[in-house]
Every structure is written in C-alpha cells, then in structure tokens.
Amino acid sequence: MSNIxxxxxxxNLFPMKKKKKKVSSNRAFDMMNKVKSDSDIDIxxxxxFGDSDIHGIGAFASRDIDSKEMIGNAFxxxxxxxxxxxxxxxxxxxxxxxSILKKEDESYNLYSTRSIKKGSEITANYKETPDFINKNxxxxxxxxxx
Length: 146
Fold this sequence. Notes:
The protein is mainly beta and 146 residues long. 9% of the residues lie in helices and 28% in strands. It is built from 2 helices and 8 strands.
C-alpha cells in the first residue's frame, strides 16, 4: 500500500487527534451575564466586587440601580442547608443601608431600598437580617454619605 495519493501528495496515515478547544474561563461569566430578571434588566451586571472603605471586600453597583430593584441572589437552599452566594458574602453592614433581603420561595434575594448610583457600595443593616445571619457589626466603619 502506497502512502501517496492519486495527486502525488503524501497521505497522513496517522492523523493527529483534534485538540479539544479550551473553553475560556470567561465563557461561564459571559453566559451568566445573559441572565435576565422578570423586568428584563440584566441583573448580573448590577454589581461588582472591590476594596471597601467599610470593611474588606464589598459589593458595588456596576450601573445605576433603581429603588426596589432586584440586585441579585444572596442565599439559596441546597441539601437542607442555606448557601451564601458571593454577593451575600460581600454586602457590608451599614445602619443606613441601601438594600434589604427579601425571601422569595426558599431563597433570599437582595433588593435596593433606594436608588444606588454606579460605583456606590451596596450595603445592608445586619441587625435587620434573618436569624441565620451573623449580626456582629464590629469592625464595620459607618459612612455618613449614604
């Protein structure tokens, strides 16, 4: 058997396996960004995480958020446990908060209590949260501009 085809080109008798295309780690994020809320506002673009003047890492509005708008999911049930999302973990305490938790089905979603300007930190009053949330506010710097 010859390894030359009828056009005089060498045949590849041992073709290499196609390499699997590496999926970008941003692909999952890009797909998440397509999620829409009931009001057709892209809630996944409502917030970002960054260094906080209040405490550690905080959640910040990545666009202007209207009053009473859903910001995102903070807690959800799984295997008879309550799981905290990254958003739930990053919302810092302020007595003069700009968001609240609202129980919907078995999940807790974060809603704005007033308009939040792009770049402003998203906050909640830990003293007004469900019993399973730690109420300790030590180390959180109160800000007067909220």
